[in-house]
Amino acid sequence: MSEIYEFVNRVRTDTFDEKVQEFKARILPASTVLILTHDFPDPDCLAAAFGISHLLSFWGVKSSVISFGGFVGRAENRAMIRFLNIRTVPFVLTEINDFDKIILVDCFPGRGNVSLPPQTEVHAILDHHPNDPPEGSSTFYDIRKDFGATSTIVTKYLLTAQCPISPKLAAALFYGIKTDTGDMRREVAQDDLDCYKFLFDIMEHKLLSRIESPDRDIEFFKVLHSATLSAVNYNDIGYAHLGNVTTPDYVAEMADLFHSLEKLEWMVCSGIFKNQIFFSIRSKNEDTAGIFAEKIAMIFGGSGGGHSRVAAGRVPFDANDANKVLERFEYTLKDVFNIIKVPEEKLVK
Ligand SMILES: [Mn+2]
């Protein structure tokens, strides 16, 4: 226990004090607050939003609503929402004028993955993606690019504000940090590791195992099956196109799964959802995943970016011209990865 207290004391005396005060001053007074995450939320943004909603209620805010565009597709994320009782409202059902304040977590306005109408006033942004706040804005920004997870920022806010962290909330934040850092494998700051250890000691462990081993529907195995059959590689760069998917989350999920294949340095996955091609890029040791995602997205007038080893994007897809668009997309991928002349092999022979 003494180690925990040492950690809590350290958190309270570092730079977070000032930031939390500034955040509080920007948000209060408020009786209704909208906490918005990126579309098709992942555990990190869900946990961060959940943590902020606890902090707001600790500060006396009567109601806060967690919302996002798209829906929760991945089985683990659905289990997280269910077992941790995270109440959310689809963005299409919210009326932004009903809220006194708007907070964005784990995303940045205008990045293409946030369902917020442009020009909407945002009061605070907590994020760890490589974005720079504009100068002279009245919005509160806490952007920590060196952090592996927004859940780490939120954990430190809760500790700094001395807001109680329940075993459930701890499980959420722990899972957020765990997944966004790939179990501490990538882009980790000391703060991530500190919070990870701290939360591990206070969380409800049974909940975590229920989230990590969820019941899956048959669709998951169908996607896995067809991805396994169609995946190719160009030396150590793997690629799988999933065709039409029932949730864009499969694109990220399959990218993660195939990326664990020992012979691969890179894995890229793409899939079509509604009228967009969603894609995910993973790298083990190279640091240009975010740059590649942005490049590909820009060529097609879409949006993309992310971290050095985990990135994603989406570009417009015209079903009437499906083959041509896909061909062009795959050519662009190869061009960006500089593998146009590298022979294609079946990934799983
Ligand atoms: Mn994140």
Describe the structure.
There is one protein chain. The protein is α/β, with parallel strands linked by helices and 349 residues long. It has two domains: 2-212, inorganic pyrophosphatase (n-terminal core), CATH 3.90.1640; 218-346, Diaminopimelate Epimerase, Chain A, domain 1, CATH 3.10.310. It is built from twelve helices and 13 strands. The strands form two sheets. It has a seven-stranded mixed sheet, sandwiched between helices. Helix 10 links the parallel strand 8 and strand 9. Helix 5 packs across helix 7 (190-202). The radius of gyration is 20 Å and the shape is globular. The mean pLDDT is 94. Bound molecules: manganese (II) ion. Manganese (II) ion binds at residues 44-45, 106, 128, 149-150, 180.
Distance between the termini: 51 Å
* Number of structurally distinct domains: 2
CATH architecture descriptor of the largest domain: Alpha-Beta Complex
Write down how many β-strands occur, each being a DSSP E stretch of 2 or more residues.
13
Give the distinct bound molecules. manganese (II) ion
| Count of discrete alpha- or pi-helical segments spanning 4 or more residues | 12
The main β sheet shows up as:
7 strands, mixed
Given the C-alpha coordinates, what overall shape results? globular
Strand order of the largest sheet: 11-12-10-9-8-7-13
The low-pLDDT segments are none
Structural class: alpha/beta
Radius of gyration: 20 Å
CATH homologous superfamily heading of the largest domain: inorganic pyrophosphatase (n-terminal core)
